[in-house]
Amino acid sequence: MRMLDELHLRFPTFGTRGLRRLLKREQGLNVGRKRLRRLMRLAHISALRPRPRTSAPGKGHRIYPYLLRGVDVTRPNQVWCADITYIPMPRGYCYLVAVMDWYSRKVLGWELSTTMDTAFCLRAFRSAVATAGRAPEIMNTDQGSQFTSTDWIREMKQHEGLKISMDGTGRWVDNVFIERLWWSLKYEDVYLKSYETPRETGRGVGAWLERYNTERPHSSIGDRTPDEAYFGIEAESKWRAA
């Protein structure tokens, strides 16, 4: 599954046909499309491209509209986003959810779990609220079952004034900042370290996210780190004039 995840990061628009060809070409593996679909579901990945909506939400799983098209995000806590990614280990895998502030790119809360349920997403959101001291004006997620569940929606509605926004199905561009976070995390840390256990993964991922928030500048926010942008601090230079 790690191999599949790496290919998805390199070719995010590829579905089962494209990934099957790559696996055969690069690894000599002949994997059936049915098995690939099952592995992609386990890894929480899908081809990132617009496609027709083929099913209606079930009872209690309302799909909310995407609210960010044309919106100018100008301040912290205006928009948060959340997403889940797959973290491979030599003997199994786990899932990571993160809650990010769109304006500053700061990761406000995160949780690791061996099961992809709603509970660990709620813990990450509550951690983000505790960090920020408030909820966002808009909370944006994909249409995954965790974020359309009754428990998640109930949690959102407990915060007065919070608006729920959901990406179009398969549209990575609707949540582009957190998709970039996953790419950086995996290629700069997870794939280099090959963590053995969920506990070890949690320690390593937590340390990387701390460095991301406090040390990693972004050109799109004036060469500031996420923490500097979130707290309204000007970019600091490590070099001082003599």
TrEMBL record:
Gene3D superfamilies: Ribonuclease H-like superfamily/Ribonuclease H (3.30.420.10). Coiled coil: none annotated. One of its GO terms (biological process) is DNA integration. Residues 72-234 form the Integrase catalytic domain. One of its GO terms (molecular function) is nucleic acid binding. It comes from the Bacteria. InterPro entries: HTH-like_dom (IPR025948), Integrase_cat-core (IPR001584), RNaseH-like_sf (IPR012337), RNaseH_sf (IPR036397), Transpos_IS3 (IPR048020), Transposase_IS3/IS150/IS904 (IPR050900). PANTHER family: TRANSPOSASE INSF FOR INSERTION SEQUENCE IS3B-RELATED (PTHR46889), TRANSPOSASE INSO FOR INSERTION SEQUENCE ELEMENT IS911B-RELATED (PTHR46889:SF4). This is Putative transposase OrfB.
